[in-house]
Design a protein that fits this description.
GO terms for molecular function: protein-folding chaperone binding. It comes from Caenorhabditis japonica. This is SGS domain-containing protein. InterPro entries: CS_dom, HSP20-like_chaperone, SGS_dom, Sgt1-like. It contains 4 helices and 8 strands, in the order ββββββββαααα. The chain is of the alpha+beta class. The protein has 2 domains: about 120 residues, Sandwich (Immunoglobulin-like), CATH 2.60.40.790; about 60 residues, no CATH class. The strands form 2 sheets. Strands 6-7-2-1-8 form a 5-stranded mixed β-sheet, with no helix packed on it. Strand 4 and strand 5 form a beta hairpin.
Length: about 200
């Protein structure tokens, strides 16, 4: 884990005639762990289950908070906020102007009061690059093995996960099975590698 892993994550935003979309570049956040709230004075707060607040600020203008949608992917959190006023041009994301102007305007029709050049960011490409960098991170030894097991576990069905947990714990870490039909029937015996003897050091 990098030294600045607990720092407030970077974010970006864009707007259309009808919506403002905030993208927070935070990896590995599950939807169930992401809590987004908007107060009556349009303060948007994004908080994680562990208590970390990763975004907190008063929005430039009003939004239809009951129609807000939140999506979490491996590389980012995307929050779509429908505007109260259609075709209203936000000068910045936050009321105090501390956020940079939107660099992307996506709309089926041009905004009525702007002559700005439309610039589109390929968010799918950005996300794929972030995930690719994470997957290609150079690991060795136990770290590489643990990463492989985590990937197998995260991609597995509930039965496969139960088989992995039961076999690993019952065998003292010497067996890791993904076959729940077989593993559920009996206790998994300790199976040390060939030419080695398993010793229980518990007192």
């Amino acid at each position: 884990m990098s030294a600045n892993s607990n720092a407030t994550p970077r974010y970006d935003w864009y707007q259309s005639d009808t919506d403002v979309v905030l993208t927070i570049l935070k990896r590995g956040v599950q939807l169930a762990d992401c809590h987004v709230s908007i107060s009556d004075d349009i303060i948007l707060k994004v908080k994680l289950t562990d208590g970390a607040v990763i975004f907190d600020g008063a929005l430039f203008s009003g939004v239809k908070k009951e129609d807000m949608t939140v999506k979490c992917t491996p590389a980012k959190i995307e929050i779509r906020l429908p505007k109260n006023a259609r075709c209203e041009r936000w000068a910045s994301l936050l009321k105090d102007g501390s956020s940079s102007p939107a660099t992307t305007v996506t709309s089926t029709t041009p905004l009525a009061s702007t002559s700005s050049t439309t610039v589109k960011k390929n968010w799918d490409f950005i996300e794929k690059q972030a995930v690719k960098e994470e997957e290609e991170e150079s690991l060795e030894g136990d770290a590489a093995v643990n990463k492989m097991f985590r990937k197998i576990y995260n991609d597995a069905t509930d039965d496969v996960r139960k088989a992995m947990m039961k076999s690993y714990s019952e065998s003292g870490g010497t067996v890791l099975s993904t076959n729940w039909e077989e593993i559920q029937k009996k206790k998994t015996e300790i199976q040390p590698p060939a030419c080695m003897e398993y010793k229980n050091y518990e007192t």
